[in-house]
Amino acid sequence: MAESGECLGTVPEHERILQEIESTDTACVGPTLRSVYDDQPNAHKKFLEKLDACIRNHDKEIEKMCNFHHQGFVDAITELLKVRTDAEKLKVQVTDTNQRFQDAGKEMIMQTENIIRCRIQQRNITTVVEKLQLCLPVLEMYSKLREQMSAKRYYSALKTMEQLEKVYFPRVSQYRFCQLMIENLPKLRENIKEISMSDLKDFLESIRKHSDKIGETAMKQAQQQKTFSVALQKQNNVKFGKNMYINHDRVQEEKKEIVLKHAFDEEDENEEEVLNVQDLVDFSPVYRCLHIYSVLGDEESFENYYRKQRKKQARLVLQPQSSMHETVDGYRRYFTQIVGFFVVEDHILHVTQGLVTRAYTDELWNMALSKIIAVLRAHSSYCIDPDLVLELKNLIVIFADTLQGYGFPVNRLFDLLFEIRDQYNEILLKKWAGVFRDIFEEDNYSPIPVGSEEEYKIVISKFPFQDPDLEKQCFPKKFPMSQSVPHIYIQVKEFIYASLKFSESLHRSSTEIDDMLRKSTNLLLTRTLSSCLLNLIKKPHIGLTELVQIIINTTHLEQACKYLEDFITNITNISQETVHTTRLYGLSTFKDARHAAEGEIYTKLNQKIDEFVQLADYDWTLSEPDGRASGYLMDLINFLRSIFQVFTHLPGKVAQTACMSACQHLSTSLMQMLLDSELKQISMGAVQQFNLDVIQCELFANSEPVPGFQGDTLQLAFIDLRQLLDLFMVWDWSTYLADYGQPASKYLRVNPSTALTLLEKMKDTSKKNNIFAQFRKNDRDKQKLIETVVKQLRSLVNGMSQHA
Question: Which residues touch 210 (CB under 8 Å, ≥6 apart)?
């Protein structure tokens, strides 16, 4: 009963648990199931049994329900399949209807948007009309401003801008167009600046184009003043001027003055009035631009721009053309542009306040002056025509005088002229070097013949020659100098004239001019003429006769130097006794040339002797002499006689030195011929033949070919040969060996080595010519003697070498 009671109590509890499991979420079943195990033991078995019973009940109920609803389910499925086809048709119809509805709605939306837009525009137009009535005065004033800008009434436009900013813009400042106008006003001011600046640029371009004409006009005025001043100076200094030009030189110089005077009148020959700078250039743009920038408060930037642009123009003006140095027109164009530039700057300086200052013009001029000097120094270095350099000098003087008249310092330009003067002198020196060369080439190096009194006076008028003996001679007669002497004298005077032309208008004293002339003349004599003379002397085609005439010519040119000094004195009116007067160095020049010619005479004379000696054809194995001297030697002696007759016009010492030098050279050449290493054998007959030639040389020296020698001085040139030949011909070896080294020795001038060399040559000959010498006692004795002498001579030579 108790167990049955427990079972009855447990069953309701299990049913409750099953109900909770069926009604509770699966995730929360855990606590419920745990309660099954927390109850009495074996309770879970009973619960499982109860659960199985419950499952079986549910399966029975499900089976009953399925059996009951199965036919309905099948019918519902069949109906659902039928409905699906109709649903698809309905979906197509709904989609089509929706598309037609959307298309109809778009057109309505567009019309609606147009209506909204029109309503907004209408509202905006109403608002704009209201605001325009407020803004119209502002727009009218701005339109007025634009009209003023178009009419180039820039000053009124600036006033209108000021009124807009102070009165009208504050009324409509909230509108964007007002802000744009406010923002545009600075641009308009800049436009006014740019427009006025454009006018200024046109002005700058105009003055650049007219710089040539402006400079030409200013230089013309300066030239007229200069011409007037020169005329007064010449009138007050007639004595200085009368000696400056003679004959055609005066005419040529006057022509050059006329050309220079009218150089700037080629385009204005018919103008009676000289135009000034205001007549050539309209300065109103620069005044107007300066005023506008002053109103705008930007006067400083305008001044800076003007000065910057003018500096650029100055650099362009100062930049010369590459071919400027080729013609005087190139230099003239260069100078007129520069003068025009600075004349304009000087005008701006005096008619405006602050735009250009004196400090600015001075700075600009100093910069330009440095550039001008550099350009002239570079381009003038290319000039090789003295006339062009002279015209350049005249242009520089006019250029300097013109700018000096406007207050610009020009001292550096005159300093440059002294550099150009040196260059001018160098060009003259080169030109006269060619003139001298031509004179020397054309000279025949013969005394000048004159056949009448008229011809004599013509020569005297060209060259200051005085010789009472020549005057007393009857015609025809000859001057001692050749034709080149008067020509050179004339050309030296022409050079002085040419050098003098550059000194004009340099504002220098007569003393300075005299010093310049003397220095340039000294350069001509000591460098140019001296070089030409030395080159002439060294030329191969100049023979002995020409060299003699050159010596005579230099003697007369040296004597004429004092007349050149008098000539310069007459030109400059500066006495030679003045302390600082430079002397001419012509004396040393002609002395040096004469000494060079003398040395060349000695050289050529020796060369001629060598040519004759090379013709010698001795038979060194000759057994007996011919009895007469060699032909080449007689020809040489005849040549020397004729040459020394020409030397009679030379100074005595020159002729004596030449004669002594020739004899000594001949003696040395003959000695070398005997001692030649290639000569292996010499016979006694050859020595005797050689002795005949030496006798002719001694006879020539004894005949006194040139007067002035004392005693047998000239014969001493052959003393070495004579003693050597006497020793061998007399065969006086005992005397030679016994007296060797004694001052009174008969063969004092015979050197042991020389005697040994010649003796060995004769020894070899004796051996070959005397094949049977060993069979003759005399020949054997002679051969032994030669061998003995050779041994003694070798001992002497060895002793000399050891002593040395």
Answer: 280, 281, 340
